[in-house]
Amino acid sequence: MKAIALLALLACRLTCQASDTQAQILATDAQYRDAVLRGDAAKLAIIFADDILIVHSDGGTDTKANFLDSISSGRLKMMSYDRSDVQVRTYGSTALLFSRTAKTFVYRGNPAKAKDTSIVTFSKVRRQWKIVAMQNTPLSE
Fold it and tell me: What 3 state SS string does the chain have?
């Protein structure tokens, strides 16, 4: 009987930890999207790992410094950024967020829209989740 109670307690604890982790990932992602929409490069600098790798829909890659410069200079202005079909999977101190995204933005003065499948990789660094990689794959219309 004690063994069953201990197993039930352990299962509950693991489930609660998974729920907390998922909530933390979703909150960090919401902070990321809010910072991008507001053009808040300082907030993005906190959310991004120093060695983040960003793979854009066109296959081009970006660094933290270049992306933050694009935001702070106004070269990139996000107008909307919506996620759907969100799934979060955790593997210890690593988590993956899978989603479909719909974005409208202005890049170098040119308005654009993108619909992608997106994978965002998070890593827990000193008790804080950081975005370490992002990849966007265009959805065919």
Answer: CHHHHHHHHHHHHHHHHHHHHHHHHHHHHHHHHHHHHHCCHHHHHHHEEEEEEEECCCCCEECHHHHHHHHHHCCEEEEEEEEEEEEEEEECCEEEEEEEEEEEEEECCEEEEEEEEEEEEEEEECCEEEEEEEEEEECCC
